[in-house]
Amino acid sequence: MDRLIVAVSQNAVIEAESAILGCDRCSAAASVRFWQILDQLRIGAGGEVIYLLPVLACCPNCRAEIDEITLVQPKLVSNRDAIAPLCEAKREA
Ligand SMILES: [Zn+2]
To answer: Number of folded domains in the chain?
Structure first.
């Protein structure tokens, strides 16, 4: 089986941190692996990807360390829907 190994940039880790509400230590709703958040940010090229984090991510809620297989609670179902109004607000300002 071909597996693509992706070295994640530190910026991408920060971006993924901002897309979650909490981790399995502080949220009962944590049901998604952290690497799946990275996947949603389209860092990978699809298919079976193994993500390598340059640094451990940090839970925005309880500050616990998060690695790629930690369960997290995603902030949004759809990133695009939430980001669009923010972009419009920026244009008006
Ligand atoms: Zn947490």
So the answer is: 1
